[in-house]
Specification:
124 residues; mainly alpha; F1FO ATP Synthase; 90% helix; 0% strand
């Protein structure tokens, strides 16, 4: 199951990268004459919306995938730590603090993905 999710995420990321590179390279082609330049400007204006929508879709997918993966990771950490506390009540405080530290790291990764998504929209 984990391998299938990893493969699907890699395919999704490669598809998004290919889509973004293709739209940027198509917009960067140089025209040869004035008529082609005018047509290229009009085409670029039309493609500008395509590039913007591609960026929005890529950002949404990044946030959705990382958010879902983070939620699954947090759920697994909480369930395993709760199970461990039930088996060894005397270690509950140490297990709880280790779990909280792990959840903080997972949440940090999710926040980084949100920052990357914002950068995709506004900088690229």
């Amino acid at each position: 199951m984990k391998k299938m999710i990893t493969v699907l995420m890699m395919i999704l990321m490669l598809t998004m990268t290919a889509t973004m590179v293709g739209s940027v390279s198509a917009a960067a082609a140089e025209p040869a004459s004035t008529d082609q330049a005018v047509a290229a400007v009009q085409d670029t204006e039309a493609n500008g919306n395509d590039v913007l929508s591609t960026k929005a879709i890529a950002a949404a997918i990044v946030v959705a995938v990382v958010g879902a993966a983070g939620a699954i990771g947090m759920a697994m950490a909480i369930s395993k730590s709760t199970e461990s506390m039930a088996r060894q009540p005397e270690m509950a405080s140490k297990i709880n603090s280790a779990m909280m530290l792990g959840i903080v790291f997972i949440e940090t990764a999710i926040i980084y993905a949100l920052i990357v998504a914002i950068l995709i929209i506004f900088v690229l």
